[in-house]
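Collaborator request, handled under Task 6.
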Amino acid sequence: MNKKLLKLLNKDSRTPPENLAVMLGISEDEVRREVAELEAAGVIRGYKAVIDWDKLDSAYVSAIIELKVTPKAGLGFEDVAARVMKYPEVESVYLMSGVYDLNVVVKGKTFQEVAKFVAKELSTIESVTSTATHFVLRRYKELDVELLGEDRDERGSYLL
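Structure tokens returned to the collaborator:
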């Protein structure tokens, strides 16, 4: 497995194979073959654009939800995680160490929509014992992409 290729694709998955070949010192055919093998093996799970939704009129609300869960015998946290990740509102689900068990990233059109989803869907799952919701107020960096640009937040300035 070519970890340097993976790092380059992670930084910019739109880099053409001919450019990747030059950067890696291998042929374009080798790049295409390695990418195809990594996709077939499930190492590369998909390609996604990082979008600064704050730049659009159709902005949305995002929240990080902490779930405390009582794991089921023989299933651990997998059963609850599998159920949670099927909701279209859910962007990400992570098993955590520490104070809570699952970290769930949710998006919706309004704060109320997200709060309603947490109250009516997530908190009612049998093994979920508690939730804590943290609304994202501003994104500065996402998936290794800086979103800050020239805009300044009215709550305070930042240093470069």
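The cover message to the collaborator said: "The first strand starts at residue 61 and ends at 69. The chain has five helices and six strands. Please let us know whether this matches your experimental observations."
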